[in-house]
Write the structure tokens for this entry.
Amino acid sequence: MGNGGLIIMSNKFIGKSVKRVEDKRFITGKGRYTDDINLPGMTHAYILRSPYAHARIKSIDTSAAAAMQGVVTIMTGDEVGHYGVPCGWQVNFKNGDIMKEPPHPLLVKDKVRHVGDAVAMVVAESREIAQDAAEAIVVDYEVLPAITDASKAVEAGAPLVHDDVPNNICFDWEIGNPKAEVDEAMASAAHVTTLEFVNQRVSPNAMEPRSYIGHYDGVYDKYTLYTSTQNPHLIRLLMCAFVLGLPEHKVRVVGPDVGGGFGSKIYHYTEEALVTLAAKKTGRPVKWTETRSEAFLTDAHGRDHVTKAEMGFDGDGKIVGLRIKTFANLGAYLSTFSTAVPTYLHGTLLQGLYTTPKIHLDMTCVFTNTTAVDAYRGAGRPEATYLLERLLDLSALEMGVNPTELRLKNFIPAFDGVTQPGYQTNVALQYDSGNYHGVLHRGLEMLGYEDFRKAQKEAAASGKLLGVGFSTYIEACGIAPSAVVGSLGARAGLYEVGQVRVQPTGKVSVFTGAHSHGQGHETTFAQVVADRLGIPMEDVDIIHGDSDTVAFGMGTYGSRSLAVGGSAIMKSLDKIIEKGAKIAAHKLECSPDDIEFVDGKFTVKGTDKSLGFGDIALTAYVPHVYPANLEPGLDFSSFYDPTNFTYPFGCHIAVVEVDKETGATKVKRFIAVDDVGNVINPMIVDGQIHGGLAQGIGQALLEGVEFDGNGQIINGSYMDYAMPRADDLPMFELDRQVTPCPHNPLGVKGAGEAGCIGSTPAVVNAVIDALWSAGHQVKDIRMPLTSERVWSAMQS
Amino acid sequence: MPKITVTVNGTQRTHDVEGRLLLVHYLRDVLGLTGTHVGCDTSSCGACTIHLDGHAVKSCSMLAAQADGATITTIEGLASGDELHPLQVGFKEEHGLQCGFCTPGMIMCAADLLKRNPNPTEQEIREGLEGNICRCTGYHNIVRAVQHAAVAP
């Protein structure tokens, strides 16, 4: 138990960088993504979308389109507008009123609310015919003024996105200590750092565009939906119970290979229900695959906060208070988890790694004429980290102190969560275990702080601007204890399901409710199962993504797959071994208590009498010599509901070089020391960190969805939206500290989002540091830090 | 409709194609070679990269009709039977892929790069792959995968 509860019988695979099982099909072009699937008789759908951000629909004329050869059917809001997709999380106003929850219809019939809002769907014999026909549909719009900025949408006289939502406010919300106590702490502070900033809207841009195929089999009255989703069972539940009213047992949802998600494929999208309806209506399979342009308009975006934050310090540099006002943009409609992101996934992380005694967040969540905003890699936690870590580095600059010493002075002391209790924050959460000094010290060793400052001075002498930025983050993942999230408004439980089916020959099929879309579950989960059962990895198959095969599941997001899904599998493995011991005891004529299971053998303790795992499996299915009162078979399913979130943390350090003449910024070094608890496959964990870093650095330097005054996205394509390419990034310098999670059987915390959470403020802090070192006392540059923005800041 | 004859992964194919049909859709929808992916609609992401007459080409950037007479290799035709191409090995060994969606295009582009420059520097690899977007890996292990293939015998 010395490794935080990691009970494994052999460690042949765990902790090793086992090469991925799933790679073979992807490197040979045999991956099977939704758009790769073609069914007999399949038709193709194209969705006509609003070109306006805000307009009343006066009329829709589909007659010319319907008459075109090859058109199978056309659907509009008149036919399906009464169906709408729900929000999965209810948050209340400060005064207790329930949030405003306007409908999000599958197709709009009265008023479009963002560019890309769906107006009609054409189903035709080919994608090209469907698109041609959509262009022949005549929609008469009365264009209305649009609003895109959340902080301005609440002002009197702003256009109303939903006519019955006053001031466009979905809800207001607060968390932390009483506001008066925070005001008092701030008034007493020796120094207050104030930062007004925008955490800009970004587009997730999973490389595979969303794609859905609806299928209806009239013989069995059975629907099948193939969908590029992160959580097939949740889609089935939402679509059946809350959208279409279909019987859940007559609907199969399959999430085959999925080309990245980053949050954007968690949600139940309108098009999933549309192809399902259209398949029933036409009696033929219906495929819809979005274009990249549509992805920019309709895949849920991330971030988009407008914030004023103040951090107060006493004369010794101890933080005494943190006061924040934020407007969060939710877009035109509520996406599945959109209301939870700025609140319970953001406000609850504002303690950071610090002992800040008084914290208050005042949050206003706002509708605008924009694409919906929901969880994007990190979901709320990057916004909290950005706020805290920008304030820490800026405070150090303003007070003339070392930013790392300022952090060390304010860190929560180390605690293991076993012999020492968890840390109770002022913002509801209780951290499980942590050693925050450790990751910063290791990061500083890797950086060489004093050497860097010397190099910075030398570089300045030769006309180069170097800067260093720090970010020490914490996140809450392993989402989540059902009772906790239920009390906070979640409309679903957040357990996971893991079934282990031992076949008669001793081969093992594992069914998980988690869904892999790049995370490597087929490898990592197999490592755990093989070691626990003492069998070769080749004898283990990990099956996911099909609601007819896997009992149930909540899917993959919030870095939860191993911490929650892996724990569910561990529970089932325990049951397998317990039953196996009973069978072995019967055959070896001893008590089950005398059996130990090591390296794939059930052995009578202290003897050489043993039976192999395969023998026991066969006996379970051919129970001729078998314990009385024991059922045949060796197949167990478990639900694992965590008792707490997990809390990975780490230290990210960016070194940048800023071109004095152009403002162009280059990341020269990026150091990441992450503590994600126990690690099953270091290669895969490092890969997850790398990818997160790229997205976090991307937000700092390159990415941002920009709207014009009419609500048009002006960079809605890969030509115009900058994302990191290979020559934008350095090789990353990674190291790891291990503080096991004390409350799950694997001791793991989660690694999917960490890179994206810590890295953004480190990069911005580094640019600010570079500018201050050259005498430009700039507090903030709006992300992304384009060369034009950095150059302009240097002119001030 | 124009009739085209192309040699794809060693097999000659002849089809009547709609004039506006893009090469990538011909490969995916007509020939069923779905390893070539579509990630954008502006020829910016490189997921559809194939080899056309020995050069890496984004197959969304040309019409099928323009490929008449060409010799094409897609990701499905890169390995020699059961023997993987060194880049396929490199991507697996160095964890150069996660979701796998960009991978075929990335490998096809890297194969062209290594043909032109068998021993590229890290910077040359990064610049050589600049036309292909990966959203999962941060490119760190893709660079190592290409280096792995470059030193392979």
User: Anything to note?
Assistant: Residues 1-7 of chain A have pLDDT under 50 and may be disordered. The radius of gyration of chain A is 27 Å.
